[in-house]
Each structure stands twice: as structure tokens, then as C-alpha cells.
Amino acid sequence: MRIPLPELLRVRLRDRLRPSGxxxxxxxxxxxxxxxxxxxxxxxxxxxxxGRADLVVLATPFAVGTxxxxxxxxxxxxxxxxxxxxxxxxxxxxxxVEGADLHVLVDVRARGAAFDVALVQRxxxxxxxxRTRARTHAGAVPADAGTRFTLTGQLARWGRYxxxxxxxxxxxxxxxxxxxxxxxxxxxxxxxxxTEPFAADEAMPNAAGLVGVHRSRRFGExxxxxxxxxxxxxxxxRRIDWRASxxxxxxxxxxxxxxxxxxxxxxxxxxxxxxxxEGIDGAPSVLDTTVRAAAGIAQHYLGRGDRVRLLEYxxxxxxxxxxxxxxxxxxxxxxxxxxxxxxxxxxxxAGIFARQILPQQALLVVLTxxxxxxxxxxxxxxxxxxxxxxxxxxxxDSARPDRENPWTPVAFGLWRLERRNxxxxxxxxxxxxxxxxxxxxxxQALRDVSxxxxxxx
Length: 457
Known about the structure:
CATH architecture of the largest domain: 3-Layer(aba) Sandwich
CATH topology of the largest domain: Rossmann fold
Radius of gyration: 35 Å
Number of strands: 21
Domain DUF58: 228-393
CATH class of the largest domain: Alpha Beta
Pfam families: DUF58
Oligomer: single chain
Shape: elongated
């Protein structure tokens, strides 16, 4: 069987250009190279058959140009590297926060000769919003050097994600050779939740640490005036109240309340998920509100020197040890990334009431959508134990039943009414419930629980 001449040339070129050793694909001839060879060969054959020298002259540019281009053949396939640019968020330096832009840096390097053009193709994951709307990027790559392509997208939601591999194809030798697609490695990224703006002006009800910014009920060095008493040995001279001393004829000093730190325990109810997460700019789900609120509250109190502990109610029943400072805030964000809604194999209440986990003087903030009777029972049990408890409602207003029928509005209204009754009953048991709304969400509730904690029993 005879093989046609163009096909024979294509097969021999492919075998000649394939690198020896290994099964990885190499450079393959393009249709332009095959056309140049066919035209050159046809002109030379015609010149021999007809004896015309002008046909040889016409074939010379094709032969010389093709040979000169093939002399600049690359020594290997493109080398592709993928990395992520560091985020510029001041709260978590070096990491990414939802709503920010993710810049994926794709470095394409040529070994030997230059690439005429390199095409970078990418997939679009659902958690990354494309800003350029271009799936393919092109650029030239110099010899023994590299070219950097920047792929930009907005991070739509917090979590741990994997950037899909990019595919790179290159053309060299004036477009006469092309390589098979080279696939890069995938890139793992961490997207921390954006902290909701939160600032509580009220002090903690039970400040019992060693040093901090909260007013305690103990006398000591601080900025809160507690009263005036007679001078006693050991009092500092700067504490003398000269008005009272001149009026009474005896030395009197101003007595202050000491400033101390407090312990905050955040209990995250993740038994159920409700609502549909639409990303950072859309409607949140229960899990979105819970994670963002927990991050905001932890950032606020850790920045003031308090100690914060996180507990899961549901899910895998995880717990984050108590700590303070910036390093503990980063650890809390890492802990929040692994949170999942659902019921684990163990009882969610098992071990949560241990003395070493829930100190008596700690403020308990329970982030819950109040969708399960077990969550209500947890709040009631915590209140009966004598601890200071505050419930934060994380159910979004956009949450609706998945399935609807003509009776859905009536049933949903009755369920809302029953839920309001549950909130009222919790308030009667000493558990105020507030809806999360960012800054100032907890002020009124903290004022109430502080007044209740200071009242005589």
C-alpha cells in the first residue's frame, strides 16, 4: 500500500520532532509547515520535469524560510507555574478575604528558543466571579525567559477552594510548530469570611480576668469612679480628692473599679442550613450569617484583649481552645473555614456542659437560627445553669420553604408566629434574643444582661 506524499511527510515530521525518551507529547507540525513543504516539493519536481529554472527560484524562499524557522526549534515544552498573589486585606495579611479579588499568576517559561505565542485557557469555577470574561489569554514568550499572565476574579464566598488547572498551548518557529496542551498544577486557596462591621459599646457583664478594658465589680486601679472614702495607708497621693478633704477636714481618696478582661464563648448552632447563599453581594444563608457574625464578634473582643472560645453545636462538635490576641483570631478564622452544617454521629450536647469548657463567669453568645427544638433546649439549659447567655438570631429574612403549595404562606406565617412565641419564652427565662445586624447588634442585650448580673440575688 502506498502512502500519499503529504501524509508521508507529515508522519516523518511528527516522528522527527517528537523528543526522544518518555511518552510525553512534543512539538507537532502545523498545517502551515505542511503547506510550505508541499509547495516547495511541488515547485522543485515541476522544475525538474520542465527544466525551468524560475520554478527553482520560486521554491527557494519557501525552502530557506522554513529551514531558518526550524533552526529556532524549542528544546522542550513550556514550563508552567501557577501561584496566587497575596491579599491586601489589613486584617488578615497574606490571605484572601471574600469579596476581594483573586489574582492568579500564570508563569509560562520557554526553554531554548522563543514562543511566537502562548495561549492560556482556564476554567471558571462557580465561587470565582470573572471580571474580564475572557477564557483565553495570549502573549509572546521570549527565549530562555518567561511571561506572566494574570487571571483576575472576585471571590464570591468564604471557604477552602481549589483553582482548576490551566492549559497552555504554544506555537514556535514562525507558527510552523505547535505543542500539545500543557496542564498546570491546581492551586489551593483559603478564603476567609469577611468580618461584619461590629462594635459593642457596652462592657461585659462578668469581667473577672487579670487585666483588660472592661469595668469589673472589684475595687482597684481603673478609670471608672466607684466612690469616695477616707484615706488609708497605702493609698496613692494622686488619688486624693481635695474637694472632699477640704470640706470634711480629713483626707479622702477617690475609689475606682478595676479594669479586667473577660471570657467570651461563641456557640455556633450548625444543626441545620437554611436559605440560599448568593455570595458576598447577595442574600446570605444561615451558615453565612453565622460564620461572618462569629468572625466579627471574635475580631472585636480579641482586639480588646479578651479571651474567646468557639464551640460547634452540631456538625462535628468541634471546639477551639480559649485564647487571645491576633494569632488566636487567625486560628479562629481557620477553624471557621472547616465548619459544616448537619448532624454528626454524636449527641451535640455531649461534653458541651463540662466545667472546663464553659466557665461560670464567661459570657455565652449562641448564634442560632432557632430551627430545632434542641437549640431552644440548649439555651434554656444554659440559662438554668446560672450562666450569662445571649442568643443571636442568624435566620435571614430571605429564608423560605423549598417547596411551595397554596397553603405555604399560611403555614409559614403560623411558623413565624410560633417562633416569636419561642423568643418571648426565652426572654422570660433570662435569654434575650437579638437579630444580627452588624455594629451595635448586641449593645441593648449586653446592657440588659449586665444590669441583670449586677442585680442582687
